[in-house]
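User: I've been trying to design a sequence by hand for this structure and keep getting stuck. Would you show me what you'd pick, starting by listing the structure so we're on the same page?

Assistant: Good idea, let's start from the same input. This is the structure you sent:
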């Protein structure tokens, strides 16, 4: 059975009883969908249960479509449905984009998906309650992970790109997430805050200041869409770093930024247990690289 249907072929199938299913998110469906289509998001675990409400008979003819027909979204939906026993499943060629381009009927909400995906220029205050930095440190026999809270921050978007900004970390807030023994956990946190590592009593904050953003055009959805250049200050050392990051719209006109990268801690005079700087460390050896992951949400001022 051919798997694809053209726009011009679909009405004939609908007239014969086919059910049209939009497999995108409920938000996309609410913004715009083919007139008369049902919604069952392929990204949700209840996808098959939703379809079963529209088409309890596995012999029902189904026509699925996604946003553009350029990814595997509709194809995966078809495969899932056929595995579940639906014997007649078609994909609408070109998805919703081709349907709209042909001027065919759609149902559209007050706010379009394109509106939701637009970054608004302006200055944004970092939401310190919902933003954080996560860290991972490693030795020869184990790894530890934890979080550091953000004390304050501000980001500026111009022409749809990050143009300026700074986030300040509260080094007193260092936590550990993997140790279950409270005494051992407290010992590690005290060790990290001591002069062996971050000397928090003398340097209570660390900061990252944006100095450049190079847009990565044609990045896949959710993939890093920019390269950040910034000045990272830890203790009394400031060095330039560069790493990939993702900038995206957030709810209610905000923005969100995600980045994951490694730094060589010894470049910031965090040298405890470094095999390059000390000898015969035994169980005290600690990897020079620290993995950092930033989750930043900011709201427009």
């Amino acid at each position: 059975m051919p798997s694809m249907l053209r726009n011009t072929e679909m009405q004939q199938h609908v007239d014969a009883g086919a059910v049209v299913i939009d497999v995108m998110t409920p938000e996309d469906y609410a913004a715009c969908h083919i007139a008369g289509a049902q919604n069952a998001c392929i990204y949700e675990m209840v996808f098959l249960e939703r379809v079963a409400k529209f088409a309890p008979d596995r012999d029902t003819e189904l026509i699925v479509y996604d946003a553009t027909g350029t990814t595997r979204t509709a194809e995966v939906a078809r495969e899932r449905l056929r595995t579940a026993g639906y014997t007649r499943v078609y994909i609408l060629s070109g998805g919703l984009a081709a349907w709209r381009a042909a001027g065919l009927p759609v149902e559209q909400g007050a706010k379009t998906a394109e509106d939701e995906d637009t970054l608004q220029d302006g200055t944004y205050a970092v939401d310190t309650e919902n933003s954080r930095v996560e860290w991972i440190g490693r030795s020869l026999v184990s790894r530890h992970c934890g979080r550091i809270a953000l004390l304050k921050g501000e980001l500026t978007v111009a022409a749809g790109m990050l143009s300026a900004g700074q986030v300040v970390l509260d080094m007193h807030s260092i936590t550990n997430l993997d140790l279950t023994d409270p005494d051992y956990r407290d010992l590690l946190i005290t060790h990290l805050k001591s002069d062996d590592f971050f000397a928090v009593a003398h340097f209570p904050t660390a900061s990252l200041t944006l100095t450049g953003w190079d847009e990565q055009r044609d990045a896949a959805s959710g993939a890093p869409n920019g390269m950040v250049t910034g000045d990272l200050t830890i203790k009394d050392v400031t060095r330039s770093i560069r790493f990939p990051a993702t900038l995206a719209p957030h709810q209610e006109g905000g923005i969100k930024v995600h980045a994951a990268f490694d730094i060589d801690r010894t470049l910031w005079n965090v040298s405890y247990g470094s095999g390059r700087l000390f000898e015969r460390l035994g169980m005290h050896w600690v990897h020079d690289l620290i993995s950092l992951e930033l989750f930043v949400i900011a709201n427009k001022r």
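That's my pick for every position. To get oriented when you compare it with your attempt: The longest helix spans residues 182-193. The CA atoms of residues 273 and 285 lie 4 Å apart.
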